[in-house]
Every structure is written in structure tokens, then in C-alpha cells.
């Protein structure tokens, strides 16, 4: 009898242990996964019991929740939805959320730790729980100009205030209307979501921060900074001026964009190579400096580093080329394994414009409780200082000359000095080019830095250039802000 009782007792204890472990796993370790599961109806209903906070641009809501009169209580509404889709993202039934809606969900939904007491107070006093509002750094004039200028092209525009890092514009195309994903019909939401997933140009991808492309000649800002700052070379340092360059240890050759030499003469300076955007001298310069000098400068500018704005930004990459001078030569003019987001390329110009100091890019000015008290405010902070003010000043002058008389002339603005750098990046045999421009204005007192990328060759295959397509887009954004 005693033996049987022991067996039963052991079985009972094991059952209790099993129950304890499973319940603990569900309640604690799996709690967040269960809460985030789009099939969790209880969580979905609960999220709509709260009047979600508004997302504001200069005090005007671009996303807000209004009474819906149905079981979900509130309907998310996006004003000018496609215009701001890269910023707000979407908030859906069953397909989660993206953009600011996702990255600041705890504040918008009223569930952040700093809102806990207010949340309890509203429940006790019988008031409807409300989320906090988020005020963005976006300048509606810059945003509209970027949206209009990009038109039907596939690509992105991002603009930054160099002295603070505040993001003034963030546009990605093709776009979409987040209102279509906010409806209270799960089947309609799923159908729209699947259509967007299959649509050409990946409209659900925020190309300003999530898309990586070879930067092409915009990377020559990094190469030139490395030469002046890390290698200690003067801007009039000369390199061999040839029409073809054989990559070290390879039978592959590269050429300049026009197929000829970089201006006249047997030698060409760093300055001329930058202004005319010549590939061969930059390839030679990269090999002459070496992997460390160039890699250190790329890292200092932000390549390889994680960043949030507060959405997560894909890390731009300049892979180490130690022992592979052929790859180093290619990467020195933005080809090879180099890839970058438009935000990273805008940071290059912003750093030059700000005297060598890059401020941390940021999309949010403040977060405020329903009673308008401040929950969080954002102050400018330094991201990195990759170069001295002297180096930045030299590169700035080269960028100004590139716009005045070099490879970026389509960014010229009458009566205003513009600094800029174009890029026309190759993507493989027969594939359309990726077209770039980055720059800032006014050059002597910068108010705005911008990066433009046009993907898929802008519909022109390999005949378009950064100067022909990307530079005019940047010009319109710069003009819009300067003419305010």
C-alpha cells in the first residue's frame, strides 16, 4: 500500500510541476508573443478600447482615432495617407503595424510605463483611456515637395536639418494608403495587404531607411574625407589619369562614366576627380590609402552602425576589403559590396554641412499626454564627428564646384549656392542603374541636407544618370524649403 501511495504521490507532484511550468511559460515567457499574435482577438479588441493618440505634423493630425460606432469603438484615420505613409506606417486588424505606429505603439496606445498612473486614473474616474500624441519633426512643405518631385518614379527622398538631425521629409515610392489597411474588416485588410505585398516596387518597404542600394559616386564624399583626414593627403594630390584601369590582381577593368580620361593631362588631382566624379582616380586613391583609412572613415560616417529614428534603420555596409585590392578599388567609388540607405547618404551631406559633425537623425520632436503635459522631448545629440571642420570645409567647396560646373549641375538654384554630389550606380550586366543625388543649401549657411535615390533606372535602364534624374528632384525640395 505504501509503495502505491508513493507512486501516486510522485505522479501528482509531476503533474503539478508540469502545470506550473506550462502556466509560467504562458503567463511570462510567452506573454508578449501571445499579445502580439494577430489572431489574439482579445488583444485586438482591447487595443481598440483606448482612443489611440494622434500623430502630428506642426500641430495637425496626420493619423488619429475617431469614434467608429462599431464593436471596435475607434477608427484609425490617416489624413493625406499616401503622402505620409513612409512616416506613419499602418495600424491594422490582423496584420500588425509599421512606422511610427509600431515604434511608438506603447505611447500611442497609452501603455507606456510613464502613462500607467494616468491610465489607472482615467479608469477610476470613468474617463475613456487615451494614448499620448506624437509630434513629428516633418516639415509639411518639404514633405509635399519631395512627394511631388519624386512623382511616379520608384525611389525615396529624405531631408535633414544638418544642425539638429531633425528629419524634415521622408518619402518612399511606390506608396500606399494606410486607410485601406485600417478598416474594421479583417478580410478586406488581408486582401489589401496581399495585394500590396505582390505589387511592383514593394510599396510596403520604406525605402528611406529599409532599402539598401550601391551608393555609387555619392560615396566619393567618404573616400575624399578619408584621403584628406586619415591619409593626410592634400586636395591637389595627383593620381594617374587613364581611360581604363585594371583592378589589382584581376583581369577586370573599370572606366570613368564618359569612357575617357578625367579631364586633360597625364595626372589628375583629388579635387578634379571629385568635381567631375571620375571613377578611376578614386579607385586608385582607395588602393593607395588602403582598407583601414577608408574603412575607418566609412564607419565614422555610420556605415555598419545600428540606428533608430525611432524606426529601426537598416545598417549601410562597407565590408572590409583587407587583402583584396580589386574589391577595395571598386568600393572606393561606391560599387563592389558597398550598400547604403538614403538616410545614410543624407547623413554624409549633413555631416559636411555641419562642419564635420553628424547629428543623430530623429523623426520625433515630442510626446505629450492627453492633458498636453510632456512625457518626452527630444534634444539634438551628436552621432559622430568623422572629420575636422577644415576637412569638411574643403569637401564643401568641392561639392559647391560640382554643382556650379561639375557633374551635378542640374541642382543649381539661381541666387543660392548649392553643394552636391551625384551618383550613378551599376547593378550588374544589363540591369538598370540606381541614380543618386545628395547635397545641401545654402552652402554658406546650410538649412537643409537631402538625399534622393531613383531605383530601376528611373525607367531609363542604363541611360539615366544621377544628374539627369535625381538632382532635379533634390533641387525642388531645396527650393521649397528655402522659399518658405
From TrEMBL:
Molecular function GO terms recorded: penicillin binding; peptidoglycan L,D-transpeptidase activity
Gene3D superfamilies: DD-peptidase/beta-lactamase superfamily, Penicillin-binding protein 2a (Domain 2)
TM regions (residue ranges): none
Keywords (A to Z) from UniProt: Cell cycle, Cell division
Coiled coil feature spans: none
Domain spans labelled Penicillin binding protein A dimerisation: 52-134
Domain Penicillin-binding protein transpeptidase as annotated: residue spans: 155-479
SUPFAM superfamilies noted in UniProt: beta-lactamase/transpeptidase-like
Biological process annotations from GO: cell division; cell wall organization
One GO cellular component term: plasma membrane
Protein name listed in UniProt: Cell division protein FtsI
Organism lineage: Bacteria, Bacillati, Actinomycetota, Actinomycetes, Micrococcales
